[in-house]
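>> Question from a student workshop board

For tomorrow's exercise we were told to take the sequence and the ligand below, predict the bound structure, and bring the output to class. My setup keeps failing. Could a helper post the expected result so I can at least see what it should look like? The ligand is 1-O-phosphono-alpha-D-glucopyranose.
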Amino acid sequence: MSSSVFASTPYLNEVRFSPPFTDQKPGTSGLRKSSRQFEQPHYLESFIEAILRTLPGVKGGIVVLGGDGRYGNRRAIDVILRMAAAHGVRKVITTVDGILSTPAASHIVRQHKAIGAIILSASHNSGGPEGDFGVKVNAANGGPAPESLTNAIYSCTKGLEEYLIVENFSVPLDLPGQHKVGEMIIEIVDGLEDYVDLMQKIFDFDRISSYISSDFRIAFDALNAVTGPYARRILEDILGAPKGTVRNGIPLEDFGGCHPDPNLTYAKDLADLLLNGHDYSFGAACDGDGDRNMVLGRGCFVNPSDSLAVLAANATCVPAYRDGLAGVARSMPTSSAVDVVAKDLDVAVFETPTGWKFFGNLLDAGQITLCGEESFGTGSCHVREKDGLWAVLFWLQILAEKKSSVANLMAEHWSRYGRHYYSRHDYESVSSDIAHNLYSGLESRLPSLVGRSFAGRSVILTDDFSYTDQVDGSVTSNQGLRILLDDQSRVVLRLSGTGTKGATLRVYLESYVPSSGQLFQDPQEVLKPLISSIDSLAEITHRTGMSSPSVIT
Ligand code: G1P
Ligand code: ZN
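>> Workshop helper replied:
Here is what the output should look like for this input. Compare the format with yours to find the bug.
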């Protein structure tokens, strides 16, 4: 424990700059830019000032602050503490070394009735001086700020030419403790404890522990990012998995050169262990800030859309969900695998735009218990963020209850519900003009496609996805081009809202095979007709000059 009291009247500075920054529009998940851009004088401060002017309840409120430990984390915490003090925040809760996963931050907001959180992360983007940095804002419910708030923050930045900051103090973050700066309290917590307690309330740890101590070895890859300390505490210290179960477990500023994105491309070492080796029965990885997860079994990759469906179908294996589900939700590009389960369970299913913020109202209103995205995100009403380690524990609990392997569980699932063959093809670093022209070119052709043939099927509907939030009535448009086919197959095209270099084109491909069909084919083979038809229709290869996607998941 450490404690200190800084000058009771710290020196308040009003810093002026000009012109205002015009590019601080938050994307799918916060403001994400290169580390270099964030290092420009006043850049970070401008965005933080806009947050502190816009977030309701700042004066006298509690703010949670932390990040995934990437390059820039420590400096940003220092700046934000000084700006929070200048804006009359009553208390900032931060963590030792400022290390805080996104789901853990969401939990702390809810537990301490904070007005929100500022989370420093560019999630799954690479880090370091040449990588990316990001600032995410969470609201009082613990979830990502809704569009109304991010739009207000953006408008504020566009006219901003000054910010308030307190000078001449810096707080050591190496130990838990309490510090006072003027009227503001800075509480440094361990950051792991609250989260670990929550997991122990949700899951039956004894049951998981006895399963993984039998002949069921697990490997977890933290990709040198934020989940390392959480995973070591939970998997090794509490559940008793052998030391070394958690690989790359120390958060590093540049993630040791890893791209902290848990997929088959960027978590290749783990994928090789599970897909080509025989030593492990279960493998998992999480992303930079701990909200994404990838799950693998021996010789078996679990597609994230399927993962959501499996969790929904087996939710009653977990003590916290023993009474069943209120409903489920998935983002539009996520496959309909969970819809089939929801129908079977007779619960509602909601289809939202891409991005976790759209689940918030449904969770708050108690309309859903589980939700997820195809981009390796799954979560529940326990927090208001997707939660990587929670998903890993959920899988382990199901496997422990069923005494099953991952591959068997998947086979049983498909033989009951049918299989949604699914893949996402990403074309990264496309020039922005080319990507936007390609997108609008396809958009203009959509109406004429209905009734025509596509990939040997017939097109039944095309649109640009639009969503009306049933809780607050807000409408979000232009969320992705959809081509729906008569055999429940579909293709979706979107431009990423999280990239920082040029544009990223995402093509989502899905094809349904009922339980009586061929359930064990290679997804890329099954999806081939859709892949080649969308390529020629949208002229992807022709316009981008790329003969294959940069990443296939
Ligand atoms: C991506 C994912 C999306 C996720 C977001 C934040 O956004 O596709 O599902 O919510 O990252 O993790 P995109 O780059 O597609 O806008
Ligand atoms: Zn993330």
